[in-house]
Amino acid sequence: MQFAKRLAPPRDDLMAVRIESHAEPIPGYKLIERIGGGGFGEVWKCEAPGGLHKAIKFVFGDLSAVIGDDGDDGHRAKQELKALSRVKTVRHPYILSLERFDVIDGQLLIVMELAERTLWDRFKECRSQGLPGIPRDELLNYMEEAAEALDLMNNQYQLQHLDIKPQNLFVVHQHVKVADFGLVKDLEGMQASVTGGVTPVYAAPETFDGWVSRFSDQYSLAICYQELLTGQRPFSGTNVRQLILQHLQAVPNVAPLPPGERAAIAKALAKNPDDRHATCQDMVQLLRNASPLGRPSNGHHPRVEPSLDLAPPPEREEGTSSTTTQSAATASIRRTPHDSNGGATAFLRGMDAAVLQAETAAARKAPAEITGDGALLPSLIVGVGAVGMTVLQKLRENLCRRFGSLAQAPHLRLLLLDTDPEVVRTATAGRAGAALSGSEVLLAPLNRPSHYLRPRDGKPALEGWLNPRMLYRIPRSQVTTGVRALGRLAFCDNYRTIARRLQMELDACSHPAGLQTAARQSGLGLRTNRPRVYVVANLAGATGGGVFLDLAYTLRALLKQMGYAQPDVVGLLLLPPVDRCRTRVLPLGNACAALTELRHYSSPDSVFTARYHEREAPIRDAEPPFSRCFLLPLPDEADEVATRELVDLAGQHLYRDLCSPLGKAADLGRAELPAPPWPSRGLFYQTFGLYQLAWPRHALMRETGRRLCQRLLQRWMSKDSKPLREGVQTWIQEEWARLGLGSEQLIGRLRDACQQLLRQAPEDAFLAAVQPLAERCALAPSAGKKTTPPPDLSPADAAAILAELEGLIGKPTDDGAPEAGGTLGRRLQEASEKLVNEWGQKLAETSVHLIEEPQFRLAGAEEAIRQVVASIEQILQHHEPLARDLSSRASEAYVRLKSFLAPAKVAGRRPPLSNADVLELLRVYPKWRFQSLVLQQASSAFLSLRGHLSDEAREINFCRVRLAELQRLLETPTSATESKPRAGRLLLPSGCKDLTEAVDGLLAGVGPEALLELDGRVQAAIRQQFTALVQICLSRANQLKNVEASLMRTAEEFAGELLGVTNTAELFLEQHPDEENAKGEASGFFDEAQPELAPGKASYTSEVCVLAAPPGPAGDRFRALTRAALPEVEVLSATAEDDILFYREVSNLPLAELEHLGSVGQDAYRQMSAAEDFTPHTRIDVDFSTSSR
Q: Whole-structure pTM over 0.70, yes or no?
């Protein structure tokens, strides 16, 4: 093999792909010029099919080479090909799009979007203007976009770029696009071989040890920011060795940065990846919120970075420095895998301890509580596991329906925590409004067993709480597979990341500015500024059931650190069904174990203790994990409808509790209930039920909007142009006149081009060429007053004149070959081609303009093309015969001249031409010849334009195909069952049996004028979001899902205006005029709201009942009617916008009486416990057996 390597030919000999200007390495892609190169290959600008400009990267190396693994040939190409397989599915506006990639003769070719320049080019431009770097505001915009793209790769695709540098951050129309993915690695197991190509200037320290963290790109981005802003990097090494040592050991020099930014960058440059920011966007947000001089900015809703440590604050020694800059700069010097110098390391660890003392010197003081009569309070809702994800999606959908988008509710934060990447991907998919954003998910991955068996820097040994043999239950897919202890293992392993993220979310939701803004803009007002946290988990699962207690106590510790002595952490826990005949062992055994642990830590004599990191004090908490604990029973997992209803119930409860007056009323009702003994309060739970009498406003808006969109699309795709014909004709005439299109204008432009070349009219140039010969042949009077016959015209003189004319206009041929047009013929052809390009673009813009006009659309554009083609045909019918006639006459004159100029030996056969005849032929030949050339080029131009129009017609047909695809997306009607509440019924307009009839009645009033108004609104939305309808249809990127969402959003708003305001109470009373009948209905609604979990027998079991109804006389009458129907029930009142809602909450139910802790649950628990080297519990260092008695 070594011999084969020595004999291997150079790379250029191996490459069959020709890389030079005008070459086509891929058919249809013509190379123009080389625009750059690097360690992995070179990049060329090319012209792609359709005249678009793209970039092609030629990756060095032969993929077909048969060389050992330690050889370089093919290694780069294979590495880049692997990277492409990882990133080919990633789509984001701030990631340079990959068009295609091919392997040709062993070489990898990548076609990508062509960018204007890089941030490095922009930096050099600013330096040339005397600036230190890119202006701060401009640079922060670039960094924000790059951070969004990198976080998307990290959170949703578990990828790290690993080669972030200014040269790989491209600028396209003032926006950044991340590019060059040759080193992309996935984070599975966090262990990856970081191969050649890494740029040491920007590389994170862990990459030099051959492993990848999810914070590696953040480190590189921080270096880019400092360098591009100040012109100075945080590490000043001048060679590779110095740089690597500095990355591994040295304190970054952040002094060149403005004081307010140093802490954020120093944190991002921490040696230990876990000490960096949770996301790249968090780093950029801190930079944006810091003024250049270090004073806090007045940015909108700033997100305050969390403190990293939850330990009780040690006393600060006198003289200990606590400056922010010093703490942030030295926080990166911790025990890391890169320590090499024992003495230096010990010194640095001493500094680290001092920094930790300074950082945790005192817990924050909570702001004074502010209460009001409103509905809103700062809230964080954390969903854990797959069921938690579906509840969050339902809640998010409700919130977006109320606020428009979560950007309008900065006091509410959603976070999904899961160990399974597939759940995270699913969470960010789905319909608009429900799908979580990338910033609302956090993956806490489980790793391979070998990861946990290696020395664990800063993390306590697992043996203290986990049986090591449990590690071998981790499958190759690295998911928890129902083992609760593995769920806790993932939480502990990712604890610092999770804690930072939770702190960040708590700071964000409790920021006063966000809460005040939401209260003011929504009109819901402020309830309290004290934050409430919900933990949503399925106790049957390994992630939810394995994490919920550690998560609750972590949240309590964070809230205490924020100054809240009694944290409001509420559990919303879901339980599997209990059926002795059908019960599955694993879900029920997990639930039994989880409830046992909950009872254990809620007991008066129990203390929760957990230590997640050696550099942090353990969390110790003697209080129950939850201030309130709601339990809901899950249906059988095979019953999808019932499961969907349960998720809807949970989402409705969260939405109503946190964002409606019902939540405020329920809080007041709970405060009046008798409570169990305070020490035992955690041993009791609550449950709830809802019954909703719903006016299906959203369903009506959605279905009406859907059908309006279908009508619009049908109108857009219509081929009936007859009603548009006159309007299009008028519009075309006006446009042709405005743009200067037409036969006379084109011929004038062609003649002008020739006149510019000759600096005189072509006819004058022809006469000037013949004039000297004419003057020599003119008659001259003699001295005797007699005339002398003119001298015979010399054939040689005539031939010279003809040759000069041929140089201008060429000569006709009789062999069928194309005519050579001379100087003027070439100029006419150039001018014609230029005009074709110019006018072709104008005609294309004309058809595009009509497509974008609501009154014309595709039918109007096709009619315009037909009318223009008809005009061109008329022009050609006039031009072509005239051109042929002039060409024939010119050819005849040319033949006669050539015969006259024949050699002397054939003079006898020379035609008898007088001087005047020859001169006349020399005058008319060039004129006829030139006129025929002009008409020929004009006809050729119009033929080309007709071809362009044929292309436009084909593109219009393609638009029709794409719009048909969009129409198919809108075919699924809104189901009445989907709009129907879980427990409740729909109120429809009188006389309507179902949703379809209600929509039919609404659409009956929508005439052509209203539809045209909607079309105008839709066009405005398309222009704002997608630039143009044509761009949507012809773009390679399939944006139809986004277009569907935009269309539906606009149409739903329009439908909402058609619906107006409907008072549910008025509608109910109108449909139930008999009072006794109405009372019976109200009593039935109350019964339907009964919670499914049966109440316990404790004497202090009690209930809160809230009736939410619309404000006004009808709502008051409905409340009075309900109280009359339920004289023994204390019904609290609240207002609701669209619905009537009965809410019943039963409190103080003993956990011990749950069926899951009864004989069936205990049987499942014992079966699981009997397995070898297995426990259904999350930890082995706590004796939970006493709690199960």
A: no
The secondary structure of 156-207 as a DSSP string is HH-EE-----GGGEEEETTEEEE---TT-EE-GGGB----TT--TTT--GGG
Task: Quote the CA–CA distance of 839 and 826 in Å, as a whole number.
Answer: 20
| 352 secondary structure, DSSP code | H
Three-state secondary structure string covering 1042-1058? HHHHHHHHHHHHHHHHH
Long-range contacts of range 476-479, CB-CB < 8 Å, 24 or more positions apart?
A: 478/188, 478/189, 478/445, 478/446, 478/447, 478/448, 479/419, 479/420, 479/446
Question: Residue 69, SS3?
Answer: coil
Rounded to whole angstroms, how far apart are CA atoms 989 and 998? 7
Indicate if the pLDDT at residue 4 is higher than 60.
Answer: no
Q: Are 723 and 855 in contact (CB under 8 A)?
A: no
Place of tokens 């909703």: 692
Q: What is the pLDDT of residues 323-371, one digit of tens each?
A: 333 333 333 333 344 443 333 333 333 333 333 333 343 467 889 999 9
Q: Which string of b and e fits 87-104 if b means at least 16 CB within 10 Å?
A: beebebebbbbbbebeee
Which 3 state secondary structure label does DSSP give 419?
coil
What mean pLDDT is predicted for residues 25-36? 88
Summarised one tens digit per residue, pLDDT across range 406-458 is 888 999 999 999 999 999 899 988 777 889 988 899 999 998 888 888 776 77
Which residues on neighbouring strands pair with residue 629, listed in sequence order? 571
Q: In 3D, which of 896, 884, 887, 880 has the Cα closest to residue 926? A: 887
Give the contacts of 507 (CB within 8 A, at least 6 positions apart). Answer: 303, 304, 305, 306, 562
Per the CB < 8 A criterion, the answer to whether 919 and 893 are in contact is no
- Give the long-range contacts of residues 841-846, CB within 8 A, separation 24 or more: 842/739, 842/741, 843/741, 843/868, 843/945, 843/948, 843/949, 843/952, 844/948, 844/952, 846/732, 846/735
The residue with greater pLDDT, 1186 or 603, is 603
Cα separation, 861 vs 284, whole angstroms: 47
Of 631, 632, 648, nearest to 640 by C-alpha is 648
Query: How does 398-423 read in b/e, with b if 16+ C-beta sit within 10 Å?
Result: bbbeebeebeebbbbbbbbbbbbbeb
pLDDT at residue 737 above 60? yes
CA angle (764, 766, 769) in 5-degree steps: 110
Residue type, 933: L
pLDDT in tens, 603-661: 998 999 999 988 888 999 999 999 999 999 999 888 888 888 899 999 999 999 999 99
CB proximity list for 617: less than 8 A, separation 6 or greater: 309, 310, 311, 312, 611
Report the DSSP beta bridge partners of residue 536.
383, 572
How is residue 367 annotated by DSSP?
A: P
* Paired residues of 1143 in beta bridges: 690, 1106
What confidence tens digit (pLDDT) does each residue in 1001-1048 have? 889 889 999 999 999 999 999 888 888 888 888 776 678 888 888 899
Is-contact 798 901, C-beta < 8 A? yes
- Residue 1188: the pLDDT is 54
Closest among 832, 824, 809, 825 to 746, alpha carbons compared: 832
pLDDT at residue 320 tops 50 = no
1131-1135/1102-1109 β-pairing: parallel
Percent of the chain whose pLDDT exceeds 70:
83
Question: Residues 6 or more apart from 1049 whose CB is under 8 A from it?
Answer: 432, 1021
Q: Which residues pair with 609 in a beta bridge?
A: 620
**Region class of 105: left (phi > 0), else alpha (psi between -120 and 50), else beta:** left
- CA distances 547 to 244, 259, 421, 550, 938, Å, are 39, 40, 17, 6, 78
Element (H, E) at 1147: strand 1140-1150
984: left (phi over 0), alpha (psi -120 to 50) or beta: left
Per DSSP (E only), the strands in 695-800 are none
